[in-house]
Inverse folding.
């Protein structure tokens, strides 16, 4: 059994009688035991201090990583273009630079699930009679279950990966629908492929341009990712990375040069020229032999490279 977590080197797996108490939790329980946190397991009375300190630091670093990841996720959700604002809106957080904040001046539907009331339209469409019918905890749970089933069915029928439910835009979408309230007319396929995609392209371009504006301040790394499509054609993705983010530059067909160091050199050299020799400090590619030779050629020409040409797998 593979034991990749470094904590396992401080423990030994043993066989226990079938009637013994079964303690579940894996390596997390081992960490809690060695760190003497008193969480879910008794502290180890014989753990050396250096081991206790090391495992305690592991747990602290893990919690910090979880906190940072959750904070970034919450910021991404808060800064989406969700409908509604104010405390009940999903865009009430501080906007990230380059991302559109929630539309202002709208407070529709901030009552909560199903607006917590029913609306009955009279003869005049402009007049709505609101009856305050509070949901009981049971009815609210039943309504949520039905909504979740409908969302799940959308995933299943369209073969959408379950991991998409981790996307901030997924939460923004549902938050916007909930904030809008009853009567939302869903966007049609025509709307999605016309003005909606154009607006998203505009927003994405603004974000990319803001990142590009920081390139001269921080310098950048050029990432070259080779892959093959369904027709077995060799393609290379070029991306540019700096502390503000990674920007996709372009994809180039490379079937005729993927194994030719000289042609690869000419290709990468052209991309460096396009970005700007004065701001590219390193190039990162996969570890094929042709790329290693290309790196040497590129270093010979581009004397301003601060770091060596790096050959490694991007995956």
């Amino acid at each position: 059994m593979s034991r990749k977590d470094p904590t396992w080197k401080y423990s030994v797996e043993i066989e226990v009688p079938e009637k013994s108490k079964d303690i579940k939790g894996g390596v997390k329980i081992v960490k809690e035991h060695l760190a003497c946190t008193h969480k879910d397991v008794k502290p180890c009375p014989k753990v050396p201090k250096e081991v206790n300190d090391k495992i305690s630091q592991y747990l602290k670093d893990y919690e910090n990583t979880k906190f940072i990841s959750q904070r970034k996720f919450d910021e991404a959700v808060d800064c989406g273009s969700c409908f509604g604002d104010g405390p009940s809106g999903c865009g009430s957080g501080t906007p990230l630079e380059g991302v559109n904040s929630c539309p202002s001046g709208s407070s529709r539907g901030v009552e909560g699930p199903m607006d917590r009331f029913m609306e009955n339209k009279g003869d005049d469409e402009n007049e709505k009679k609101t009856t305050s019918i509070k949901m009981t905890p049971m009815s609210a749970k039943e309504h949520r279950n039905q909504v979740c089933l409908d969302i799940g069915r959308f995933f299943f029928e369209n073969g959408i990966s379950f991991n998409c439910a981790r996307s901030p835009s997924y939460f923004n979408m549902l938050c916007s629908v909930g904030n809008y309230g009853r009567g939302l007319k869903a966007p049609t396929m025509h709307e999605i492929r016309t003005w909606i995609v154009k607006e998203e392209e505009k927003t994405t371009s603004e974000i990319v341009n803001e990142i590009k504006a920081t390139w001269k301040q921080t310098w950048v790394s050029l990432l070259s990712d080779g892959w093959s499509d369904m027709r077995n054609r060799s393609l290379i993705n070029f991306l540019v990375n700096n502390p503000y983010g990674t920007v996709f530059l372009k994809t180039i067909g490379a079937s005729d040069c993927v194994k030719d160091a000289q042609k690869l050199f000419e290709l990468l050299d052209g991309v460096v020229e396009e970005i700007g020799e004065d701001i590219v400090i390193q190039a990162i590619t996969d570890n094929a032999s042709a790329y290693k030779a290309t790196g040497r050629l590129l270093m010979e020409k581009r004397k301003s490279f601060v770091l060596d040409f790096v050959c490694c797998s991007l995956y």
